[in-house]
Each structure stands twice: as structure tokens, then as C-alpha cells.
Design brief:
Elements lengths: L1 E3 L2 E6 L2 E7 L1 H10 L5 E5 L11 H10 L4 E4 L5 H9 L4 E4 L1 H5 L2 H10 L4 E10 L2 E6 L4 E6 H11 L3 E6 L11 H10 L4 E4 L5 H10 L4 E3 L2 H4 L5 H10 L6
Parallel strand pairs: 1-4, 4-5, 5-6, 6-7, 7-10, 10-11, 11-12
Antiparallel strand pairs: 1-2, 2-3, 7-8, 8-9
């Protein structure tokens, strides 16, 4: 769930954002309808130089009974503590970790690596997967796979990879980099970006070793119902909760 100005939003290739509803209400709905986990990313917190909304996290924690990860604008152990203390289960870092990689180690040492998710947004440019920061607005010189390995070595316990090329297109997950990423690191990987139909979930689980698949618009706008998706995966011999 991408959050901007207190609302859930969704776009295509990280642009053209449209409103998708109230994050607290959506969180409650997903919790009651079979989602395994939720991920909240305050996508403009870093760009606007402000902290992730603690009050929203507190409200969400009151309404749901599944784990949820929160990211956006987290630049210190204190920031993370405030969110975890108000109900978040995991912390996601992206731009702040690029600017200060030792933050990953600090968070892992304080809270344990199971609490630290390294979110990576990347785009395929000149035959390489290049990492972007600030909600996909600023290109870095980091290679997706090298940065993922460094992040895990520093203490990240999970990788959330979003293909900017696939984001919002509903054309399917980025299978090739996900396959390679799973070979590079020994922590759980969440695939993000591009899901448009139930077959895309089947494809990513069968063709890569990712541990989870994240989707947004297909759920926000009722194109895929989570119980139906889970039944579909079960009938295709894919182990799920």
C-alpha cells in the first residue's frame, strides 16, 4: 500500500498516482479477507523530508491481526523504534539505507534482522538493473544485485524488490531479475510490480524462488479477490498459508 498525504495511491511506473482509498479501512478489509501481510510505504516522506505517519500506524495496528511492514522517511533507530512501538512489525528502509548503509546494521543490531526489510526500486537501463531512490525519482549508480548482497551482509533480513518497469503495468512480475536475486541472497524475497492476474502469481512462484508476491491495484480495485487467488494457487499445487 503506497501512501501519499494520508491516502492510499497507485500509479504506473511510479507515476500518474490515483487515489485508492483510506489506508486504515483498506488494511482492515485485507486483514479480514485473507491477506498474509501488509506493506505500507509512505512514498513521498523522503522527498518531502518528513517522517512516516506514526498516528496512521497506530490506527492500523488497532484494526488488523496480521503482520505489517512500514517504510518511508525512516532515517534513524529512533524513527524505527517509534513505529515498532506503535504497532508495526517490521521496518522497511530504502533511500535512507542508500545514503547511510550503516543504518541497516544499526537497525538489525537493535531490533534483529527479522525486523529489517530492505526495499529496492530498480529499472532496467543499458542492460543493467539500476537502483533508484526517493520513490523512484532519483537514479543512483548502484547495481540491484550488488546492493541486495551488501544490504543482507549489513543485516537486512528480507528484500522487497519492485521492478519500476513492471510497476502498475499488470503485465506480470519481472521474472528474470527475481530469479537472479533469489540466487544472490539467502533471505526471503518479496516480488513487487506488475501483477495483473492470478496467473502472474503462479508464474512468479513456479519460475523463481521468491517467498512472497506483493500486489496493489488488482486488490485495491477489486480485480482479484484474495480468497479466490489462494484457492487458485492451492489447485495449482503452490503451498500457501
Amino acid at each position: 500500500m503506497d501512501i501519499k498525504d494520508g491516502r492510499t495511491v497507485k500509479g504506473i511506473n511510479f507515476e500518474g498516482l490515483i487515489d485508492a482509498g483510506d489506508p486504515v479501512s483498506l488494511a482492515k478489509y485485507y486483514s479480514e479477507n485473507g491477506a498474509d501481510e501488509l506493506v505500507f510505504l509512505d512514498i513521498t516522506a523522503t522527498l518531502e523530508g518528513r517522517k512516516t505517519m506514526v498516528e496512521m500506524v497506530r490506527k492500523v495496528a488497532r484494526e488488523i491481526n496480521i503482520p505489517f511492514t512500514v517504510g518511508g522517511g525512516i532515517s534513524s533507530v529512533e524513527d524505527a523504534f517509534n513505529l515498532l512501538n506503535n504497532g508495526a512489525d517490521k521496518i522497511s528502509v530504502n533511500s535512507s539505507a542508500i545514503k547511510n548503509p550503516s543504518l541497516i546494521k544499526d537497525l538489525s543490531n537493535r531490533f534483529g534482522n527479522q525486523c529489517v526489510v530492505l526495499a529496492i526500486d530498480a529499472k532496467f537501463i543499458d542492460a543493467k538493473w539500476i537502483v533508484f531512490q526517493a520513490g523512484g525519482r532519483i537514479q543512483t549508480d548502484l547495481d540491484l544485485f550488488e546492493w541486495a548482497k551488501e544490504g543482507v551482509n549489513l543485516g537486512a533480513g528480507e528484500i522487497l524488490f519492485t521492478s519500476m518497469d513492471n510497476d502498475g503495468t499488470k503485465s506480470g512480475f519481472a521474472i528474470d531479475p527475481l530469479y537472479k536475486l533469489a540466487k544472490c541472497v539467502n533471505v526471503p524475497i518479496i516480488a513487487s510490480g506488475g501483477c495483473g492476474k492470478v496467473e502472474h502469481f503462479k508464474e512468479v512462484f513456479e519460475q523463481t524462488n521468491v517467498d512472497a508476491a506483493l500486489a496493489a491495484s488488482v486488490f485495491h480495485f477489486g480485480e482479484i479477490e484474495i480468497p479466490a487467488l489462494k484457492n487458485y494457487l492451492k489447485t495449482n499445487n503452490i503451498d500457501i498459508r
